Amino acid sequence: MVKFFKNNEEKKIRRLESFEENCWIDLVNPTDDEIEDAALISGIPEETLKAALDEEERARIERDDGYFMCLIDTPTLTDTDEGDTYETIPLAIIQNEKCIVTVSLRGNPVLGDFISNRASVDTGNHILFMLTFMFGNAKRFLANLRQIDKKSLRVQAELHRSMKNKELIQMLALENSLVYFSTSLSSNMGVFNKLERLPEITGNEDYKDLYDDVIIETRQAVEMCNIYRDILSGTMDAYASVISNNLNVVMKLLAVVTLIISVPTLIASLWGMNVGVPFEGQWWGFWVVIGVCVALTAIVSIVLIRMTNSIRIKTPKEIKRKRRRGN
Question: CA 24 to CA 114: how far, in whole Å?
Fold first, then answer.
């Protein structure tokens, strides 16, 4: 999809029917024909316009005699069967003397704010347009990180009530999202560090202040992402230990039950063979066998329960207390 936008006399964004000088061309998942048309009217090579259409494209700056491209990663929300998944996709901002072009695979919320005039932007000032988008993109990262943190707390509350695979898969998806965010934010920081050397930014105080705001917001997003990722990773390890411990308790219980049941089974098997056994001709023989089974089962149960209770991991306090008694 190709759209043309430009500021009117009141500095508001309005949509154009065709290309004009100093306009903004917005390409969202364009076709080959749309890319070819955009390349003809803007003078930007098709290979450059297609750069952001590769989901694995790395963030970078590319400068040529006829254009300047800044490609950065942007957060996006994907709806899946397991729930909402946060990912990142590349977005390219390409500018030359004629216009400014944005290319992405999906619609971007920050660009949507520009189109709806919720955020002020000047299509004729390409550097200011680029820095304004970067600032909004950094704030979008922060907003998505807060949403991830809230979802993580909600899933943890559900896991406290019942251990289910659904909640664990959601936790894993959130952890993967934080990994994507961390990688993308690091790549964006590399791009921003290169922008600092541009004379167009360093020579203008307003641009420099906005650039500093972009760096501050991005660094905050990096720190938040690392903190949330460490917390979520530790939480996943803790729940894995809890699940393993619960499994051990269940297996121990089943082992005890199996050993207890094996006692009367063994006696019944021996008495059931086609051989002569004691009390064979006595009417009270059956009840003697039942009594022996009950007695042996009770004794084995008491022994096993005491053994399982004694086999447990000692706490550090208990270990220190035992050492003091030994001294």
Answer: 11
